[in-house]
Amino acid sequence: MSDKDELDPRIQIELEKLNTTTDEINKLEIEYDEANTTFRMLLNESTRRLKLLTKKLGSCIEKARPYYDLLEIAKKQQKECQEAALQYQRASGIHAAAKETVALAEQRFLTNQHEWQFDNAWQEMLNHATMKVMEADTQKAERGRDHQIKASIYKETDENLKQLEEKLQKFIIKSRPYFDEKALCQDQLNTQKQRIESIKKEIIKTKNFYSQTLKNLEQISNEIHMKRQGKQCDDDLLTRPREPGVGAELSQSFEETPTHKTRNNMSSLPDITAELDRCEVCSVATTSSAVSEKDPSENISEDLEEVKAILRNMSLRPEKAEGKMEDMYVSELHIGNIVKSPKKTPKKSSSRPGSSLH
């Protein structure tokens, strides 16, 4: 092979990149499949455990749910209040620094006024510093008002939470194992979901790099082709539209062209809270007779009338049952200590319900 026909060294470099990237894509796709499988297993196991607890604890879960829902809301409001406080502190620091800059500039000028002349440059500098002070003061006032509003909202929620705690104390304590377990399951599932999303982003990034490498090879091929024909390598010729080469379809987004391994798995993951709540509704429907807390003073005659009604309707059973499922509550995520422990608690536990949800 002559010197002119020697292989361009850039081709070897790009081919090595393709080989390395291909191995990386295969590795990431395997990890992605394994992470999806783990997520499904965790979801199934979480559903199983929550069904068992629902059968065991019964109706106290629904009776205590308003407290735990409000506890979650209070947790979020407390976090927002803390963030608003930090923003106010930053705004206060910026305002103080701006005021100090103006004060130092004025002091320096007064100290050296016999040597320095108050010209347009000094006037412009002081005006700029003064505007900074005014902007910082406005920002500080806005952050302060935002913090006061969020603190007031959180305080009101906290008071309502204490009232619910006193009213539903018995049900709160009895249902605590369920909500503790649910928070743990959601934390595990969310962690695994984040890992899946992280792997997906890496696959997208790697495939985009693979596509760019193919484009680089195509560009090198164009240059070699024109050199062999003795043509000038003009930028216009290099950049003019050409038929898509082999592998050019990889320039599309990763979601549009996933590989056969991940085509089905790239669909969005199920909503964790909805899946966990669904198992609870099913379990409550099948165990309501075993765990319902009925008043022992109910009249026997009412039971007899109910039996008679059932016997009369057996031959006229409707085609479609008109049952209505209660609205499922959502988003019992990670919650922590927000209010003080209940005033009166059984010997089993002295901590405030919900405080062990980590």
UniProtKB/TrEMBL annotation:
Basic residues composition-biased segments: 341-350
UniProt record, GO biological process: intracellular signal transduction
Stretch list, region Disordered: 247-266, 336-358
Cellular component GO terms held in the UniProt record: cytoplasm
Family: Belongs to the SH3BP5 family.
Single GO term (MF): protein kinase inhibitor activity
Pfam families in the cross-refs: SH3BP5
Keywords: Coiled coil
Protein name: SH3 domain-binding protein 5
Annotated coiled-coil segments of the chain: 11-45, 154-202
Keyword Coiled coil among record annotations: yes
Superkingdom assignment: Eukaryota
